[in-house]
Amino acid sequence: MTIRRSLLTVAAAVGAVLVPLSPAVAEPLESTPVYSYADAVRETVWVDTGLTSPQGARVRVAADIIRPREAQATGVKVPVIMDASPYYTSVGRGNESQKKTYDSAGRPIQFPLFYDNYFVPRGYAIVLVDLSGTARSNGCVDVGGRSEVASAKAVVDWLNGRATGYTSATGSTRASASWSSGAVGMIGKSWDGTIANGVAATGVDGLKTIVAIGAISSWYDYYRAHGATLTMGTPSGLASRVENSAAATNCATVKSTLDSGSPSSGDLTAMWRERDYVPDAANVKASMFVVHGVNDLNVKSINFGQWWNALPATVERKIWLTQAGHVDPFDFRRAVWVDTLHRWFDHYLMGIDNGIQNEPRSTVEHQPDAWKDDVGWPVVTTPKHLYAHASSTAGVGTLSSAAPPPTEIPVWARFTDNRGSEYTWVSNPTSTSSARLIYSSPALTADNRVSGTPRITITATSSSSAARLTAVLVDLGPSTIRYYRGSGEGITTLATRSCWGESATGDSACFLDTATNKATTSANIISRGWADLGHHASLDSRKTLSPNTPYKITFNLASTDQVIPAGHKLALVIGSTDSAYIGSVGSYPKLAVDLTKTVLQIPMTGSF
């Protein structure tokens, strides 16, 4: 889309540096800082969500706003960058856990993160929304449910004149968003980006783009893995962590519903289905910028993979995949991130034809700080079916594309659930272990890229009435990786600061710098997946296993993008309770896997 307006109108609207094409026609290159950050309007509006609390009161959510004063004075309407979060007065945001602060009159002073410092001078408004039941909003925390999605959607509606805002939490004086152009971009990491996904899935008008960083697409897949209970706590426990005092007092029924809807059986209940945005991805009209760590073991990477694949083909999109864990790109690729985000918002919120929509859709970090662009994601691969073959060493064998010969006689490989860890299982790959099975390919003759979502089918028996299964893909060979298991999940925070935008009293634009934290390994885990064998037939209801009876189960591994270098081997590890990430069934079952009926489906480039 090319924008051509009068030079004065464009300059006032976006603060762009312009080269006149004629005395009356110009085309902006980018928004530039022409507005005063120190003099910006700072205010709070409480937006009616249309919902009621358990006590019957209307739910209003607080939206803290900072916007250029000069734009309103000259009648220029500005676009909005919005981050809706439950964390502004609890956990905080960003690498420095920044929280909102207010003056004695309740006027917002500190807006966490750099968005306000950088974008307000460039002609944007920043709106930070307290989700229902958190900070200065009323209502309840329902952990990704209808109330939270409505919290943010209502603010988009208010910015477009379709909802009612007030100057206080309970008063009747209305507040107008007459200063808003109606173009809204939602951004956020983790829970914040999750709500952006949920709002986009409503198809709300005015939401032009979302930037979802380490975001959930299905809350079931945050707390469960094909029926296995992930070690992420409980939804009601998470609600208690972020809710305000009024919600803690008044929202017991909501938390009770969360508890009853998340049984330890791993069943996919109506509560989980309400919090699954993937089936509604067809409603998305906003452009999408997805950022995720392939080693994110908080919000597992299956969340970005299934969301990306479900988006309509008409959705313009871009993806960054990093080798880090649950880390914001501001902290692993700062300068490039700020520039890219700037151009993204300029294009989708201000209509500036800067060409970003024509740039490569995919940028992937395969080695620390080494990034590769591609036209799309996942890259074109040849789906391969790989099979495990036994050897003379118990529990150790080969992995190849050669299918086992047709036979009605099972080939059993046996191990015992010792509630170990995948990081132990991948060590000593040529030795027998009673706790796992491992099958390795020959050394690869060329680099081979895994891009997409692997899937495995396992036929197994259990000695007891319940059992877990874990499947792990490993790159065997010397590698230097981001140390995603460290406290910074692939980054180290430094003592120095760099500044991104303008500062004012109480809100600095200068943030702690970071550096890449690296480690060396001879066994780099590139994808993993977990399942409860009792969910072999369906996620709807876990079945009690009949001991020593074979059951066939198919489940996804983590969406990923990794390069296995020439000379390395690809290994498949099969274990039971991976104690680092899933809970046990309460016993130590003995398991047997039928290798003739077990197959790994993996999207790979090159030959194997």
UniProtKB/TrEMBL annotation:
Residues 342-601 form the Xaa-Pro dipeptidyl-peptidase C-terminal domain. PROSITE patterns: TAT (PS51318). Its EC number is 3.4.14.11. The keyword Cytoplasm does not apply. SMART domains: PepX_C. It is an enzyme of class 3 (hydrolase). It catalyses: Hydrolyzes Xaa-Pro-|- bonds to release unblocked, N-terminal dipeptides from substrates including Ala-Pro-|-p-nitroanilide and (sequentially) Tyr-Pro-|-Phe-Pro-|-Gly-Pro-|-Ile. InterPro entries: AB_hydrolase_fold, Galactose-bd-like_sf, Pept_S15_Xpro, TAT_signal, Xaa-Pro-like_dom, Xaa-Pro_dipept_C. Keywords: Aminopeptidase, Hydrolase, Protease, Serine protease, Signal. The keyword Methyltransferase does not apply. It holds the Pfam family Peptidase_S15. Residues 1-26 form the signal peptide. NCBIfam families: PRK05371.1-1 (NF003780). Belongs to the peptidase S15 family. This is Xaa-Pro dipeptidyl-peptidase. It comes from Actinokineospora xionganensis.
